């Protein structure tokens, strides 16, 4: 290798690999695009291999770059552990990216961050609710709170609670339908086809197999809105439906979902990630009965 290897260029390599563009990498690093480009070129020259294939659509890892990703991530984790040990006596600092579902983020997790950030002024938290596009393996996020347990990858997974669901309708709708638990005359709010694997969507398909939904939505927020408007019955989390003033039919659905805390195993030693993870576990535990609907 003609040029000396500079370990400080590794963050630029990881940032470009994760974002796919120099602009995205520069934004995540708080550096200029020219600086990031220069670091990538310097790293490639030092290693003697091309790390990225350049195209108009962005940067894509070469086979050599893909092979080096685990090593680069190990370096990143080691450096974070080193920094965490050094900062242990002066508070937690850094940026943590959390991926979670919108129905947990907006009413529960985001409001809880005030106490966490007050205790750790040097900490910042980025919350992504677009879970479908978040990949912990590519480090799109540092940790996640999810309703589905991952089955692959170098991840640490912990069950931290249960989200309970019930069949709900607006007060006026329930008064109009009268008593009983049969659904022959009921209208219901369905899920778009691409969400057919959701336990709630599957239950509705089984229970209303001969009836088309009166309206179909693609988010839990719109399911809740449609139910509040009296359009029909909807399968909703207990805590959201009850706080919206909806009434529950006494039917056991069997679609409750476990809540999982997921993080990349290499980040277990990161103090900034551990502090946020412990906070999230505490929030879910404190609201356990509310989330179960008991």
TrEMBL record:
Domain (HTH lysR-type) ranges: 12-62
A UniProt-annotated Pfam family: HTH_1
Domain of life: Bacteria
UniProt keywords, alphabetically: DNA-binding, Transcription, Transcription regulation
SUPFAM superfamilies: Periplasmic binding protein-like II, Winged helix' DNA-binding domain
UniProt-recorded Gene Ontology molecular function terms: DNA binding; DNA-binding transcription factor activity
Family: Belongs to the LysR transcriptional regulatory family.
The protein's name: LysR family transcriptional regulator
